[in-house]
Design a protein that fits this description.
Elements lengths: L22 E6 L5 E7 L10 E4 L10 E3 L1 E8 L8 H14 L3 E4 L6 E5 H5 L5 H15 L5 E7 L2 H20 L11 E5 L11 E3 L12 H10 L5 E5 L3 E3 L4 E2 H10 L25 E6 L4 E6 L12 H8 L8 E4 L19 E3 L2 H6 L21 H11 L2 H12 L2 H8 L5 H4 L49
Parallel strand pairs: 1-4, 2-5, 3-8, 15-17
Antiparallel strand pairs: 1-7, 5-8, 6-7, 9-10, 9-11, 12-13, 14-15, 14-16
Helix pairs in contact: 1-3
The protein binds iron/sulfur cluster.
Iron/sulfur cluster (SF4) binds next to loops.
């Protein structure tokens, strides 16, 4: 059946990147608009395999151009229910990436597609070819879908009309988990879709933790596991509660070990520093530790500027992704900001020091009232120094951590350190070793005096020191 298409269809094309120079056309993305949406429909309300295009087709698009795109799929079947919409919608990302010469990134109203020049040369000249391939894959791979009909829109005005409806659907899905919490259920859900490019990624979806991609919530996971228990979304029995504050469960740890092929055996759902959730690459937002203020900043895909640490989203995303537990960085879905357990192991909102102003506006309702003015944005500060001043001026809760650290420094230790000839502790009182020292992080260390500085003793507390190689040389 796939012979009818002028392109190959295979999972081996997942991960294919189409660079600007090799792109025939770009669709949606950060410089345009677009969305993907799946809706459950009644069997009688759709015509199987029907495709409609509103707006110009690929053949009408000049090389190097950019257009908006909306992709709307209606699905029907005896087992199809509204909770399955997000699951099928997420598979659009996967299946479009099976098509050689088509790149699909992100999800919902953040989608970003590119069609390569080679694909167009080989005959990919119509969206109908793509839509037909996706409809075929939906029905082959997701047998609960008995009928599917597709509408693609590339007309800007039409998409502007439709996009608000799509956003209302996303919002309604996200709102469903508001009254349900991790402790109310016995089962969480896992997803391995992103293991194709992040092999050790362990995605755990709970009522209080939406997926990193932001596209799958606990209800969606449940619906998917019900209709296709052997599929990429599956049930995880919670097991015993190991630690409530960080959201550690024995069942999650067992799955983490199995799914990561033994790379991780602990995963704390609501922890930023210790055994954090893995980050694949689909996350909507990256959190980053700012050691100079002992706080956490968050940057989203839509922010094109530079965070106070001097890095852009794309740079931090590169460091965070790949399915690792990266201490000091964490990928999340936007809706996790709305969770009452949002990084509860590490102070929750009290630890948040910076966000892009657009992202802050988006989640403003979830920020505790007393913190709304204390979290800096790109409009308030540009670098770590101005962030530090802002937090101090606003009396942000992290400032108390600085004071506590200074006051709590044990006398003996102070005395020992203060003997160091170049002790940075004294020169830079704003720097400290945080209470919850992220493993592998040494945000600020007293300067080591040279050997033979006369009985100086440096005490490292809560520090993890790893030495890969020691070279011993004879001093001539
Ligand atoms: S981010 Fe997680 S939930 Fe979303 S598709 Fe990837 S593995 Fe699945």
């Amino acid at each position: 059946m796939a012979d009818e298409f002028p392109f190959e269809i295979s999972p081996m094309f997942e991960g294919e990147r189409i660079r600007k120079d090799n792109m025939h056309v770009e669709l949606a993305g950060p410089k345009s608009i677009g969305f993907e949406l799946v809706r459950a429909a009644d069997m009688n309300d759709l015509e199987d395999d029907k495709f409609t295009l509103i707006g110009p087709d690929i053949a009408d698009m000049a090389e190097g151009s950019r257009y908006p795109i909306a992709m709307i799929y209606k699905i029907a079947g005896e087992l199809v229910e509204t909770d399955l919409e997000s699951i099928v919608e997420r598979r659009n990302h996967e299946f479009q990436n099976y098509i050689q010469g088509l790149m699909h990134l992100n999800q919902r109203d953040d989608v970003w597609l590119r069609v390569s020049k080679e694909a167009v040369k080989k005959g990919l000249t119509s969206f109908e070819q793509i839509a037909k391939a996706i409809m075929m894959l939906f029905k082959n791979e997701l047998p609960f879908i008995e009928k599917v009909e597709t509408v693609y829109i590339t007309d800007q005005a039409e998409i502007e009309k439709e996009i608000e409806n799509a956003r209302a659907v996303y919002q309604a899905r996200d709102d469903r988990t508001k009254g349900l919490h991790d402790e109310d259920v016995d089962t969480f859900y896992g997803c391995t879709l992103c293991q194709s490019f992040a092999p050790t990624n362990v995605c755990v979806i709970t009522p209080d933790r939406i997926s990193l991609c932001g596209a799958i919530n606990w209800f969606d996971g449940r619906a998917a596991a019900k209709v296709d228990p052997e599929g990429p979304q599956f049930a995880i029995e919670k097991g015993e509660l190991v630690d409530a504050a960080s959201g550690e469960y024995s069942g999650v740890n067992e799955h983490a070990k199995r799914l990561s092929n033994g790379e991780y055996d602990r995963l704390k759902l609501h922890s930023f520093f210790e055994y954090p959730h893995t980050s694949c690459g689909c996350f909507e937002v990256v959190g980053f530790y700012v050691p100079e203020v002992d706080g956490i900043g968050w940057v989203d895909r839509d922010f094109a500027g530079t965070a106070p640490n001097g890095l852009q989203f794309s740079t931090m995303a590169g460091q965070t992704g790949g399915g690792k537990q990266v201490v000091g960085f964490l990928g999340i879905g936007v809706n996790y900001f709305r969770s009452p357990k949002f990084i509860s192991a590490d102070g929750g909102w009290d630890r948040v020091v910076w966000m892009p102003s657009m992202l802050k506006q988006k989640v403003l309702d979830s920020i505790p009232a007393e913190l709304k003015d204390k979290i800096a944005t790109d409009e308030d500060v540009k670098d770590v120094e101005s962030l530090k001043n802002f937090l101090k001026e606003k009396d942000h809760p992290v400032v108390k951590r600085w004071v506590v650290e200074e006051e709590e420094a044990p006398e003996e230790e102070e005395a020992e350190v203060s003997q160091a000839p170049q002790a940075q502790y004294q020169q830079q009182p704003m720097q400290y070793v945080p209470q919850q020292m992220p493993a592998g992080f040494m945000p600020s260390m007293p300067m080591m005096g040279g050997s033979g500085s006369g009985g100086v003793k440096i005490v490292l507390k809560n520090a993890k020191v790893t030495v890969d190689k020691i070279i011993i040389k004879k001093i001539e």
